[in-house]
Design brief:
Helix content: 25-40%
Pfam families: DUF4435
Number of helices: 5
Strand content: 15-25%
Number of domains: 1
Number of strands: 4
InterPro entries: DUF4435
Distance between the termini: 39 Å
Protein name: DUF4435 domain-containing protein
Shape: globular
Length: about 110
Amino acid sequence: MRDQLTPDREANAIRLKRQTFTGAFLLVEGGSDKKFYQRFTHKNCEIEVVSGKPSSKQRVIQVLQILENDNFAGILAIVDADFDRLDNLEFSSPNLLRTDTHDLETMLRSD
């Protein structure tokens, strides 16, 4: 069912939460990302999982763009870099962070 939500509906859900929550919103791609980043966020930061087809990363970026276009304050997104740097698919925003390596799992791997 979550896959059927459009990026506009995801953005609207966050807008509605703004009525009762004045802190920051952090958009992430999946539940494991949320679990990881919760360790590093403050109680005034609500982590929102934005996932779906065809790409959770694209959906996160779309929701971010929608909210930025409306000058929504207090929004940040973290996505996996994947192969974006190799494919020159860089969407740029001061509110968008990418992992240093391919994805969160490869950043955490220790040799």
